[in-house]
């Protein structure tokens, strides 16, 4: 049985990871924009981001644009890799198992 | 203000691998830039420009009125496109926002350059050369769409670019005043159809 990464395999974190993985390499997204895309509350999103951050999948950068504080979120290299592995594992689970195919 | 509702139980895993894959596809599709409005905007603008020049050639209004209408449509179109471009990339920072801005500015430079070449054409050949200006603009737009399609691996943009280039060449060989209609109805129509198809695909 293919193991699915438990950090990603929760609906909220899967949505967060999938959204961040859609960004090009090196791109990062502001917290409010991510929150808007996912329609999650700030508290809920923070909780899940913390779990992803603890696993080393997400990097959070706090910076300033002019005088306004901005929080950026991005997938780390390990996070992108974990997401790719997770997606590959899903596809393996969904692929027809050898021996179960009906011969033509 | 109240926060938007949380969608679905947070920590529960998706019901099945197929559901997990569907969640991934849904979230990633949400971030695909919606280019349909650009096509619709410029399709309508081209159709109005073509109509304005056709009407001027028919004596319904002056060439000056058609020229002012065209100028206004171009300014409004560029302003609206720039605004939509910043909306699409909002909240994202990094290489793609830099290249997105370069892409938008690249279009602006190409359009200004084409306008200048059109001016040079009229200066060299006289007012008759001005009849080629719409075709020149349409051709450059077609080339840019084709290049965009190749770069973004979008067959849709690539084919649309070729269609627009063909319309440009047909426009160039169509006598006045019908060339304005070919540009307006053909080019504008192609962009409107592209916009509608693009909206339907979302």
UniProtKB/TrEMBL annotation, chain A:
Winged helix DNA-binding domain: residues covered: 19-93
One Pfam family this sequence matches: HTH_34
UniProt superkingdom: Bacteria
InterPro entries given in the database record: ArsR-like_HTH, WH-like_DNA-bd_sf, WH_DNA-bd_dom, WH_DNA-bd_sf
Listed name of the protein: Helix-turn-helix domain protein
Source organism (scientific name): Pseudonocardia autotrophica
From TrEMBL, chain B:
Keyword annotations from UniProtKB, A to Z: Membrane, Transmembrane, Transmembrane helix
Record field: transmembrane: 35-54, 60-84, 105-126, 132-151, 181-198
Keyword Membrane: yes
Domain of life: Bacteria
This protein's name: Uncharacterized protein
Upper taxonomic lineage: Bacteria, Bacillati, Actinomycetota, Actinomycetes, Pseudonocardiales
């Amino acid at each position: 049985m293919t193991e699915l990464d438990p950090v990603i395999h929760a609906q909220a974190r899967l949505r967060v990871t999938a959204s961040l993985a859609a960004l090009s390499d090196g791109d990062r997204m502001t917290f409010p924009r991510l929150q808007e895309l996912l329609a999650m509350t700030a508290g809920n999103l923070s909780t899940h981001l913390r779990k992803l951050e603890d696993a080393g999948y997400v990097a959070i950068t706090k910076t300033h644009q002019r005088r306004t504080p901005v929080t950026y979120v991005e997938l780390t290299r390990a996070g992108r890799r974990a997401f790719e592995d997770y997606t590959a594992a899903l596809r393996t689970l969904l692929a027809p198992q050898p021996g179960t195919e009906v011969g033509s | 203000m109240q926060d938007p509702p949380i969608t679905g139980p947070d920590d529960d895993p998706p019901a099945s691998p197929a559901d997990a894959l569907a969640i991934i596809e849904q979230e990633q599709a949400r971030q695909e830039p919606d280019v349909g409005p650009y096509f619709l905007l410029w399709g309508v603008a081209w159709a109005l420009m073509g109509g304005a020049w056709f009407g001027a050639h028919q004596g319904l209004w002056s060439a000056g009125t058609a020229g002012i209408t065209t100028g206004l449509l171009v300014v409004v179109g560029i302003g609206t496109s720039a605004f939509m471009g910043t909306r699409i990339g909002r909240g994202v920072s990094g290489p793609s926002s830099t290249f997105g801005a370069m892409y938008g500015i690249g279009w602006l430079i190409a359009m200004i350059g084409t306008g200048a070449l059109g001016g040079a054409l009229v200066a060299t050949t006289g007012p008759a050369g001005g009849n080629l200006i719409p075709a020149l603009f349409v051709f450059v737009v077609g080339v840019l769409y084709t290049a965009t399609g190749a770069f973004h691996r979008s067959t849709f943009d690539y084919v649309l670019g070729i269609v627009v280039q063909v319309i440009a060449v047909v426009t160039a060989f169509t006598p006045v005043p019908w060339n304005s209609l070919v540009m307006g109805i053909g080019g504008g129509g192609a962009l409107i159809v592209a916009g509608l198809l693009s909206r339907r695909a979302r």
